[in-house]
Design a protein that fits this description.
Oligomer: homodimer
Helix content of chain A: 40-55%
Strand content of chain A: 15-25%
Radius of gyration of chain A: 21 Å
Strand order of the largest sheet of chain A: 3-2-1-4-5-6
Distance between the termini of chain A: 11 Å
Number of strands of chain A: 12
Amino acid sequence: MINKIALAGCGNVGTALLEILHEKRNILKNKYNFVFEVTMVTDIIKGTIADPNGLDLGKILEALHEKNSLKNFKQKEGTFDEILLYSNATMLAEATPTNLKTGEPGLSFIRTALKNGISATMTNKGPIAIAMNELMALAKENDAQLKYEGVIMSGTPLINMISSGMTGCDIIKAEGILNGTTNFILTEMSEGMNFDEALATAQALGYAETDPTGDIEGWDPAVKIAILAKILYGIDINVNDVEREGITHITAEMIDKAKAEKSKIKLIASIHRDCNGEIHAKVAPTKISRSHPLASVDGITNAITLTSDNLGETTLIGAGAGRKETGQALLTDLIAMAK
Amino acid sequence: MINKIALAGCGNVGTALLEILHEKRNILKNKYNFVFEVTMVTDIIKGTIADPNGLDLGKILEALHEKNSLKNFKQKEGTFDEILLYSNATMLAEATPTNLKTGEPGLSFIRTALKNGISATMTNKGPIAIAMNELMALAKENDAQLKYEGVIMSGTPLINMISSGMTGCDIIKAEGILNGTTNFILTEMSEGMNFDEALATAQALGYAETDPTGDIEGWDPAVKIAILAKILYGIDINVNDVEREGITHITAEMIDKAKAEKSKIKLIASIHRDCNGEIHAKVAPTKISRSHPLASVDGITNAITLTSDNLGETTLIGAGAGRKETGQALLTDLIAMAK
């Protein structure tokens, strides 16, 4: 069977997915029996193209690399719903920009896919943070799959590890460095920069946005913890209910003091179930010993330690962002959905 | 459908599996839709019991805990093959002692299961190190599954991560601490013991065997690297072809020198594919910087860093042995086989 992929959102991540698919077509077929065509690509700026028999990925990538646009191709007119159905897609890869207030436009795209029995994967935290229950129910109802490996640590396979690698294990606590920007800033500060210099460097390197509030005030890891609350404990936590403290008040003196105590300050995002069954969710700068498994996690790298009944501490360290890394998350999910 | 489990080998790991299954019966049913009966338990010392309708796990565990024997139950007479078929098992959990020369008795047990279309999981490195190709072919031929999460890092889900979490990723290098005993010895040495003291401590704590050769000469991680060669690159490497150096010649002076250089000596097991496509497999004490992700992995903990095209470095740190940890590996595989 040919898997027909629709891609919504063709920015850095979407383009990386197309590149990986194009480069690895033969390997994916031979090693994973994953045969595919991309039958739709839609991007609010670059344009919308569709062909139920498969688009020419080579030409699409050439246009994206040279003109950063798909407008040279014949545009497909219609609503997203109409074009998705026209494309005969069997799976949707959703990589539109994250909107944590409305989840749009990704949320509507995913709803449309699932309602039509089309499985969906996303790297966009918005829809999953806002409507995970609804989307899971929709998927079940329509015999479709819903995946979202990329929403927490990009392609670093945390969600796969929880749902498939540790099946039957009771995860009591998850504690991690889930935001690369703040970890980069704290790392630079531990090497001598003050907060403003470190933030400016992060912005210059493209790690932090012009308005860095989402990162430095801890909103981004708080959303990820809210998603983990659902995955690990099946409960709904509003991001506003995550106890949250950012890193803006961290001074060079505090960093130096921690160093003198053979410790490091890290922005730790955590969730745990206490012995009364109550769930505690928190994001806060935390002093951890240099021998702690998360202490050596520097720069933009992410990491998480899961504490469980049968395995004790299991730590996963890896990329937390990046175009290829997040494209890989979509690929992992697409292949899993085809099985 | 009721999954009927046969357990071969009822030592620490086998008993831990039975404990987990007994404790978690309801959770496994409700959360994973995994409904099961244990229909056969065989152990060369403790005895052999079978009932196609399901054995009483509570009574079995009571007997194991109180008498360390199953001889009080009515013994089932016959060959392994006969009893396995009598038990109506749909899956075999194999946890007999490892024999790296013959793979027996586990190898024959697994062959019997697969030939009869019964899926098998093992925590025993022997069969997989000796006959992985044959067993994979047998499984395919008979429409059965073959799993072995526990053979490398016990329940820490390395194999799941490679086969399911990083699908489509090209893993160029794997480098890790895959033997807890030697890592414990090196950790104790870095805290002041000499080699003989550290080894004696490891033996006293049950981490090292009376004949510690397999660990301290690096045979155990070499076997794991040979298994990884097959999983990652599909090639057969004899354990004798893994370049191998143990830790017996490591002195307190060498440890101190490394410390002075802000480094640590770790027994690193590695395999990588160079740009000519050649595979290099090696186990050797290696000086790594204190900022290396593997440097903070102390004591009996295991860890591995996978370097891949799309994800860069992904590191997994966790238990490398232990009864519950390895029982969990069997459980993960059993649930996956039921899907």
